[in-house]
Amino acid sequence: MRDHRTAGPTLLRAPHAAQVILVVLCAVxxxxxxxxxxxxxxxxxxxxxxxxxxxARKAALEERIEPLVVEAEYLSRLERIERIARESxxxxxxxxxxVLLMGDHGEPALPxx
Length: 113
Description:
Elements: H1 4-75, H2 78-87, E1 100-102, E2 108-111
Antiparallel strand pairs: 1-2
């Protein structure tokens, strides 16, 4: 017959090992869950800063665009271009015989009279 002292540790060892495994498994799951949560919070904060930085850059670029648009409008005025063509380049309006109307497919139509 077996002594209860020899049977006891083997009987207690199996449930005790299962409890240890269960505790370790819970600790691993909780650790990974906490690490995932912290990683998400880090990404959320990092992306928040990145969005704020991009918004600031966008505002700065929009401020730089406005004077450029005004300058482009000034430089593309027909009166200015015509004055430069006459004074600097010595151009003059074309004679009516030099004007050709173009058809729909790019072939010349009759000259303007």
